[in-house]
């Protein structure tokens, strides 16, 4: 039971990592990919309607730490 749960979790993690690699941007949750919200211009996505996925931001933070640490 535990092994199958771990395998399922690992497969979901790998699938999400592949999605973040292939499609790093997702729809903006604030303006629903319109670029505008009720107040006008969307500050969450800078009006583009697209935001970086959480996994992509995590990957970039790890890469930045690695790059800055090896200088």
Our count of helices gives: 2
Report the mean per-residue pLDDT as an integer.
84
Shape: flat
Query: Which class best fits the helix and strand makeup?
Result: alpha+beta
What is the H/E string? HEEEEH
Kindly provide the radius of gyration, computed on alpha-carbon positions and rounded to a whole number of angstroms.
17 Å
Low-pLDDT residue spans: none
Largest sheet: 2 strands, antiparallel
Total strands: 4
| Percent range of helical residues | 40-55%
Range of strand content = 5-15%
Largest beta sheet: what is the strand line-up? 1-4
Overall structural domain count:
1
Distance between the termini: 45 Å
Describe the structure.
With 71 residues, the protein is of the alpha+beta class. The chain has one domain. The chain has two helices and four strands. The protein has helices at residues 2-22, 54-69, and strands spanning 25-27, 36-37, 40-41, 50-52. The strands form two sheets. It has a two-stranded antiparallel ribbon with strand order 1-4. Strands 2-3 form a two-stranded antiparallel ribbon. The model has no long low-confidence stretch (mean pLDDT 84).
Based on the model shown, name its key terms:
2 helices; flat; 71 residues; 52% helix; two-stranded antiparallel sheet; alpha+beta
Layout of strands and helices, then pairs:
Layout lengths: L1 H21 L2 E3 L8 E2 L2 E2 L8 E3 L1 H16 L2
Antiparallel strand pairs: 1-4, 2-3
Give a nutshell description of this structure.
By secondary structure, the chain is an alpha+beta fold.
